[in-house]
Structures are given as C-alpha cells and as structure tokens.
Specification:
The protein has nine helices and nine strands. By secondary structure, the chain is an alpha/beta fold. Helix 1 crosses helix 9 and helix 5 runs parallel beside helix 9. The longest helix is centred in the first third of the chain and has 17 residues. The structure holds nicotinamide-adenine-dinucleotide and zinc ion.
Length: 248
C-alpha cells in the first residue's frame, strides 16, 4: 500500500476513535533531541538494562551519574516535538479521550499539554536520598546532575541521591500500571509509539486491548506486535502522526 493511502487510512481510524490509549517509548522523544538506547546512534553503547540496573547503581553510582549527565542535559533542553503535539491535538481539537502510558522519564507529554499521562518508569524531575528518604526536585540539584559526579544529599546527610526513575529490579508504580491496563482494555484504538516492546510489563500493555480495538504501531524498527496491528509504520512518529491527525 502506498504511504499516502496508509496515512489516509490512519486518519480514518483516528476519526472514528473515541477512546485512545497510547503506549510510548524512547522513540517518541528522539525527535526532541533525547537519544534512545536501542538505536545505533543511541546514547553511547549502553543499553537501558545496564544503565538503569538497581544493583549496578547501588554498587557504582559514579558510573550511573557519569552516563546520565548528558541524558539529563538533553532532557532539560528538550521541547515536545510534532508527535507529542499531535497527540495533544487529538484531545484538544478533536475531543478524543486520550490516555498516555509512557516509558519515558522526560516529562514531554505533560509539557505538550496531554492531560492524562501515566509514567510507568517514573520521572527524572525529582530524586530521593537513599539514606534518609528525603525527596529533592532535580532543579535544586541541577549543577550536581550536570557535573557527572555522584549526587549527594548535601549539606545534610550526604546520602547518595537516586533519581525517581524505576530501575530494573524495582517495582513499577502500581497505580500508573493499573490505570494504564484499564485504559488499554477500554480503548477502541491503541497507539504504540516509539517503543521496541522489549521491556515488560510495559510491553504487555497493548495486548490487553479489547478484541474489537484497532492497533496502530509507529516504530522505526519491527516490534513483536507488528503482525497483529491494523497498520504499522516503520517510520518517524514526527512525520506520520501529525500527517494522520491533519487528515482527520
Ligand atoms: N526520552 C526518555 O525519557 C528516555 C530516553 C532513553 C531511555 N529511556 C528509558 O529507557 C527505557 C528503554 O529505552 P530504549 O531506548 O531501549 O527504548 P525502546 O525499547 O522503547 O526503543 C525505542 C524504539 O523507538 C524507535 N524509534 C526511535 N526514534 C524513532 C522515531 N523518531 N520515530 C519512530 N520510532 C523511533 C527505535 O527504532 C526503537 O525501536 C525507556 O523505557 C525509558 O525508561 C527514556
Ligand atoms: Zn538524606
């Protein structure tokens, strides 16, 4: 099928949809200048499993902070891209119910104005002290986060601070996960955007959709659910999604 025809079909699916549940991953934000971990031009040569492993963090927080400094910097500099804005337009201009379940820690869906965003892997915008449990906004630790050195709870207990991101080996926030499950079961359209669907339990969310729900995937590389989808675009979210929304 030709691309324009496929986009027109996508527009038609969007037009009919009333309740949309979205699962987004790092690919949603690459066009905002935040690298993902899996693409060849991703952040260094690390995988997210290595960087966000709780054991690695507790053993060697200095390695974590060295790697995370450029990611933190790109998150701080970033703005929502055309894909984030198109999702917001679906609720704002077209009156759709849109629930976003995101694996991203960058806060860009919220910045774009999306009303309901469940952060399955937490967020980068606050940190918690591993010694006393004190929580501090990232903005108060900005210089330390940029330095690439271990961030400590200064000047009080000097405990190591850990960003409020869900690490491998930690539980996902259960309320965010349950609300996302519910949105997937109730949706008449599920959108999978910029995720390789490799990390569970988030990757399992789209399989909770109802039998009659449409599934549309936009991801540059193949995903395990491609065979089940109504439409699959192995292309850029920033190109395809706004074009489809425009055609509603
Ligand atoms: N922006 C962020 O907040 C951010 C960035 C990197 C990593 N992380 C964390 O690490 C975890 C896993 O990261 P990951 O990189 O392995 O993510 P992932 O497994 O979700 O993979 C990203 C996918 O997006 C695709 N992609 C990249 N740019 C795209 C674009 N413009 N349009 C369409 N598809 C595109 C890639 O082909 C890849 O398959 C995340 O779930 C998150 O917790 C978050
Ligand atoms: Zn402390």
């Amino acid at each position: 099928m030709e691309k324009t025809e496929k986009i027109a079909q996508f527009s038609e699916i969007l037009r009919k949809a009333k309740k949309i549940a979205v699962l987004s991953g790092a690919g949603m934000s690459t066009e905002s200048g935040i690298p993902d971990f899996r693409s060849s031009n991703g952040l260094y040569s690390y995988t997210s499993e290595e960087v966000f492993d709780l054991g690695n963090f507790l053993r060697k927080p200095e390695s974590f902070y060295e790697i995370i400094a450029p990611l933190y910097d790109s998150i701080m500099k970033s703005e929502p891209n055309a894909g984030h804005l198109a999702l917001h337009e679906l609720e704002e201009k077209y009156g759709k119910s849109v629930v976003v379940a995101t694996q991203n820690i960058d806060g860009l869906h919220q910045k774009a104005g999306s009303r309901i965003v469940h952060e399955l892997h937490g967020g980068m915008l606050s940190l918690t002290c591993q010694k006393c449990g004190g929580q501090v906004p990232a903005s108060a630790l900005d210089a330390q986060l940029r330095s690439g050195k271990v961030v400590r709870h200064e000047p009080t207990c000097m405990g190591v601070m850990k960003p409020d991101i869900v690490f491998y080996g930690e539980m996902l926030p259960q309320d965010a996960l349950m609300s996302s499950y519910k949105a997937m079961t109730q949706a008449d359209l599920v959108l999978v955007l910029g995720t390789s669907l490799a990390v569970y339990p988030a990757a399992g969310l789209p399989t909770e959709r109802s039998r009659d729900a449409e599934l549309v995937i936009i991801n540059r590389t193949a995903t395990p659910l491609d065979g089940e989808a109504t439409l699959v675009f192995h292309e850029s979210i920033g190109e395809i999604l706004p074009a489809a929304v425009k055609g509603i």
